[in-house]
Structures are given as C-alpha cells and as structure tokens.
Amino acid sequence: MTRLYSLDGVDVRFGRVTALHGASLAIDAGERVALIGANGSGKSTLLRLLHGLVPHAAGQFTSHAPQREQAMLFQRPHMLRATSATNVALALWLRGTPWRAAREAAGPALARVGLEGVLARNARTLSGGQQQRLALARAWALHPQVLLLDEPTASLDPTAKREVEALLAEAANGRTLVFASHNLGQVKRLASRVVYLEHGRILADLPVHDFFHGPLPEEARLFVKGELV
Ligand SMILES: Nc1ncnc2c1ncn2[C@@H]1O[C@H](COP(=O)(O)OP(=O)(O)OP(=O)(O)O)[C@@H](O)[C@H]1O
C-alpha cells in the first residue's frame, strides 16, 4: 500500500486559534476518508494542510502526493468570469497542456458531468449545482491521483446533491478521496473510513462500518446521534 500522507502530532495555528491540535493520521493510496465533526472542528484546515495551502506549526507532516496529482473542490467553487469551456481549458493550460489541446479537451470533460449544453455560457451565470459539476469537470480533467473535497454538496438542493454525489463516486473510482461532510448518509455511501474531529483533535479514526456500528468515544457518539435526528 502506498502511503500518501503522514501526520504525526501536527498543529496548525491561525494566530491564537489552534485549528488542528496534535493530529496523527496516515492516509494510503486508494482510501476514501470522510472527515466529520461540528463547525470549526478543523475539517477544512486538515484538507487545506493536505493540499499544501496552510503550513503546520508543530509536529511532522509528510505528503507523498505531488501537488499536480491533487485537486481540491470547495463548497462554493470559484469560477472565472468566462465560459464553462474556458474555465476547464484554463485549468489544463495552467498545468502545461497546450491551449488548443486544452480547448479540445474541455468539451468531453463537460459532457462527462452532463454540462455539454452550457459550454459557451458564462460560468458565473450557472446554478450552484451546475457550478459544482463544472468544478468537478475542471478537477477531473486534470486526472488527479487524489481528490480533496470540502463539503462539495453542502450548498446544493436535494436533486443536485444526488447528481453531484453520483459524479463524485464515479470520479473517485481508482483514486484517493478525502472529503469533509455533514451528511452522514453521504459518508456511508462514499467513505471507507471515518475520521471524527472535535476542537481540532482527532477523536476517532475507524473503518466506516465500525464507526456506524461499533462503540465510539462519547463525544463522537453524541455527534452522530445529533446529526441523525
Ligand atoms: N484563516 C483563518 N484565520 C483564522 N482562523 C481560522 C482560519 N481558518 C480557520 N480558522 C479557525 O480554525 C478553526 C477550524 O476551522 P475549520 O474551517 O478548519 O473548521 P471546519 O471543521 O471545516 O468547519 P465548518 O464545518 O464550519 O466548515 C475554527 O475555529 C476557525 O475559526
């Protein structure tokens, strides 16, 4: 099994706030790891650390996933004020694909997420669900080894949620997936392993079946119970 990330006693701080506290975790290639926990528990910070967007202040962090092999999706994706096709093509061009080839690849990439009808539309005028699908097309076109997703369906309506989740499951095929979610149904469907965070600390790290069916630390048990209500 290829190790992609190792954290050993990692702290991440923002001024006086310790967003991650003594986090120890190893993630191997092919795993599907769900990060769950209340607002502010450190899920986004952990994803941003994995993606190289924030530094750690203490402990050891090693990433064996090259930056260009990772793609990250945010809850509200940032779209350039340009057509959908250009948004995809630019991402490819920035990674070294010649412009013409990048333009040609944009059509099939958008078709894969069902957006062939909006190739020429300004991406900022698309609906939330369409923008998330476009963000996925943009990430997917890069053929990343790792997909890091920060609550990718949180702002979508139930139909768009289902559609985007189905696409995520497909995109995650053969890849490593690390995602933050408040949707426990989604966690059950997509994850093989669950990491529960509270106040920046990892309180549980279990295979998905054990997380939902086995004994849990009290804090995690109460969180799951509350989320299921
Ligand atoms: N750039 C920043 N500057 C200052 N504090 C920050 C910054 N980013 C995160 N924090 C703080 O770090 C802590 C962890 O935040 P983080 O966004 O990682 O939590 P989260 O579990 O992803 O929350 P949510 O479910 O609301 O997205 C919070 O107290 C947050 O306010």
UniProtKB/TrEMBL annotation:
Limits of the ABC transporter domain: 2-224
Keyword match Cell membrane: yes
InterPro entries (alphabetical): AAA+_ATPase, ABC_transporter-like_ATP-bd, ABC_transporter-like_CS, ABC_transporter_ATP-bind, P-loop_NTPase
Gene Ontology MF terms in the entry: ATP binding
Annotated keywords: ATP-binding, Cell membrane, Membrane, Nucleotide-binding, Transport
Keyword match Cell membrane: yes
Superkingdom, natural source: Bacteria
Pfam families: ABC_tran
Recorded family membership: Belongs to the ABC transporter superfamily.
Protein name: ATP-binding cassette domain-containing protein
Annotated source species: Variovorax robiniae
